[in-house]
Amino acid sequence: MDPVAEKEIPLLEVKGISKEFSGVRVLDRVSFSLSRGEIFGIIGENGAGKSTLIKIISGIYHPTEGSLLFEGKSVTVRDAETAHKMGINLIPQEFNLIPEMTVSENIFLGKELRNRWFLDKRAMIEKTRSLLEHLRSDIAADARIESLSVAQKQMVEFAKALASESKLLILDEPTTVLTRKEIDILFEIMRQAKQSGVAMIYISHKLKEVKEICDKVMVLRDGKLISIESSEHLGVHDMATKMVGRELSQIFPPKAKPQEDTVLQVRNLSVPNCLEGVSFDLKRGEILGFAGLVGAGRTELAETLIGIRKKSAGTILLNGKEVYVKNPTRAFASGLAYLSEDRQGSGILTAFGITENITLTSLKRYSRFLLKKKEEALKAQEYVRKFDIKAASLKTRLEFFSGGNQQKVSFAKSLDSDPQIILIDEPTRGIDVQAKHEMYRFIHSLVEGGLSCVLISSEMEEVIGMSNRVVVMKEGRITGILTGDQINEEEIMFYATGLKGVA
How many other β-carbons are positioned within 10 Å of the β-carbon of residue 260? Predict the structure, then answer.
């Protein structure tokens, strides 16, 4: 075929695609086309149909009706392997990595390099090192996945995609756990891929990033196509309004005023190679934000407070009394709760329903000799109403939920033990602007009711907009605790990079 004519034929054409689950239509006759070397953004609230659409394109789901054309030919994408052979590769929102295997083993899983009859492990390790260097990552090729941070796992997913010669690359919420520096590297790599003719579908709730990197933006709402426009002519506010179908009010609620009494005192907390001499106080009804770059030690701090990691020194006092938190069970009993940043890794069980997940850490409340299933179900139903969790029934497995609804269930689970203090790590990771608004309002109502909150977030606006005070960390130490007018992006970055504060 003439190269010019080939270039004019869309790489992908989606024609009238619909999808139903148990008679419920979640995608309704969606159509669009994608050219070679084009970055195509897809935005919409959780449940809008974004994930369902890309799962159809990548062979995970089959459409109820409609058709796909790839390189001008009608295709049936039977499964993910078929899509991969066609040159369609998906970087999923939730990681698809095997924890017990090494980085190089994961990257070349199913496409191993061989030296005649034997696996060429040396070649795979060298290729992995080269891919990671391209991503400017210092992850070791022989490191086990289970030893990596969430951000490092995301980098491994990028490397997996780069190891395949993709014609169409689908990125689902790729920047939720990345620093701005890592995002800049990713965008540079995407622009290089674009220049070489690779097409990309980019899904994100970070609308500023969508505008920055995408050529066109498609808006989905309730499974229907609302608009497709050039990002050049579409502002961030316009995107948000089209997503929800109405004007959005101020996303952050007014900050609640903390009470005078201190509920948590942490003194000189240390963990080898993670934390050193960490000290801070938390007041009743306060949102204490924790900011810092990846590797600052914020998640490690939360895991130590909740008993996942063992402290080597320091004291933890709850309501003035020292507590010895040896494990999460002891922490829950002491009045602490934890919402993990890794929703599917340690927050929820996707093969189970709503009720089983919500009562996972509070089963003692519903049992003596036998489990009080009716009481358990009534409590779960209460959370469904309170959080507006979208589900056909309490028995619907969480693997079929949108990211936002999974996060709501995880949050409900954290609250069911009636904690005094909740540690929230990346509460809005992978959820849309309206779901964020709901999450912020709910956190605000909790602290107004006397609950205290430690808020860890990589989103600067979130930390600034929600926190009464902000603790900034760098390399396992606190460099500063900011209040009032100090709580701004520039000041936080000065402390996070060590330009200000304790070295």
Answer: 7
